Amino acid sequence: MLEAKTLRKQFGSLVATNDVSVEFGRHDGEIVFIVGPNGAGKTTLVNLLTGLLSPDSGSVVMDGKDITRMAPEDRVHAGLVRSFQVVQVFDEMTVRENVRTAVLSKEKKLMSMFSLRDEHAEVERKVDDLLIKFGLDEHAAHVAAELPHGTRKLLDVCMSFGLEPDYLLLDEPTAGVSTSEKEYVIETIASVSKEEGVTTVTIEHDMDIVKGYADRVVALHQGAIHGQGDPSILETDDELRRLLLGVEK
Q1: Is the pLDDT confidence value at 81 over 70?
Q2: What is the DSSP string of 14-45?
Q3: What is the pTM of this model?
C-alpha cells in the first residue's frame, strides 16, 4: 500500500497540501482517481508522493517502508512510477526503441541497447509483450513523432509499465486527447493495470471517465481531503458537485 500520512506543503502563505492522509492500493490493481477544482492540491500531492517535492511535515510510506527522503529515481526502481501530463517519449526513436529503453532502464542495461537481438532475448520478449498489451505492436516500427496524440500517450504509459511499477501515478492521461481516442486510451490503461495488478492513481478532470473507470474517488479541496468513496459520491455529494461542476443543489 502507498500511504500519505499527514502530508503538509506550504508555498509562502498558500497551504497546498494540508495534513493529507490517504492510502492507495487497498487491493492489487486498484484504480483510484483524484478529483478536485483547480488549486485543490492534486498535483502537489502527487509530487510529494513521487519525491519531486519534499513535505514540510508528514511522511510517505510504501509497503510499510518510509520513503519520505528517498530520491525520485530510487522510488522508480522501488516500484513507484509517474507519467506526466505532457507526453515524455523520445520523438526521434521508434515505438519499439522507446519501450526497449524503458525495459533496459529497469534492467540497468541501457549501455547495451544496440546489441539486443543476440544478447537480450528476454528484454525483447518483455518489449513484445508490452507492445501487444497496449495495442502498439502495429506501430512498433513507426517513429514516435509521427503518432497521433492518443497513441503517443499510450506509448508514454506503456514505457512506464516497462519500469515494472507496483504503483503508477498519472497526471490527466486524457488531456489533449481527441474525444474519439479518449475512451480507448483510458480503457487500455485500466485493462492493463488490472491484468498486471498495478495500482493506478490518476488526476482527472473528465468526470465521465472517472465515473466509468474508478474503483475509488479521492476528492481534494483547498489542500485537504473533501471526501472519498466509490464513484457514486460524484452524484450524491452536493458540495462536491458544486465544487467540480458548479451544480447547485
Answers
A1: yes
A2: EEEEEEEEEEE-SSTT-EEEEE-STTSSHHHH
A3: 0.89
What mean pLDDT comes out for the span 79-103?
86
Quote the CA–CA distance of 246 and 234 in Å, as a whole number.
Answer: 12
Average pLDDT over residues 51-56: 96
Cβ neighbours for 212, distance < 8 A, ≥ 6 positions apart: 183, 186
Domain ranges for the chain: 1-79+166-173+197-249, 87-164
Residue that is written with C-alpha cell 518510509 in the block: 66
Residue whose entry in the numeric block shows the C-alpha cell 507496483: 166
Distance CA 78, CA 161 (A): 13
pLDDT grade, residue 246 (50/70/90)? low
CATH 3.40.50.300 fits 1-79+166-173+197-249, yes or no: yes
Q: Which amino acid is at 28?
A: D
